[in-house]
Amino acid sequence: MTGKAKTSPYLLSGLIKCGACGGSMHGRTTWKNKWRKDGPRIGTKYYVCGAAITKGKSVCQPVQFPQRVFDDFVLDFVARRIDAFLGRQGRAKLRA
Q: In the chain, where are the structural domains located?
């Protein structure tokens, strides 16, 4: 991994594809003009079609999908596959 990929909070950025145009989906945060009581600005993380971001609406409509939905789905799927592969003690085997 190079560049932003090392520290990006978007696990699936560049790995999932847009259903409309086939372009790579990339992480993007939308910021509101609101701040949390402890200081940081409020932002919501999404996956958005990279073609829509870089080439505009003529190529693809910039539909946003919540990051948490995709990440949770993939992480749950991977966890079930690991459990099925390693059996009931799978997580303990991985920790060892």
A: 12-95
State which H helix or E strand residue 28 sits in.
Answer: strand 25-35
Q: What is the tens place of the pLDDT at every residue in 62-95? A: 788 889 988 899 888 988 888 787 776 766 777 7
For 67, phi then psi, to 5°, come to -60, -45
State the Rg of the chain over Cα: 17
Q: What is the pTM of this model?
A: 0.67
Q: Which residues of 29-63 are buried (b: 16+ CB within 10 A; e: fewer)?
A: eeeeeeeeeeeeeeeeebbbbbbbeeeeeebbebe
Q: Which single residue is written with the structure tokens 């409509």?
A: 61
Q: Report the 3 state secondary structure along 47-76.
A: EEEHHHHHHCCCCCCCCEEEHHHHHHHHHH
Residue for token pair 């690991």: 82
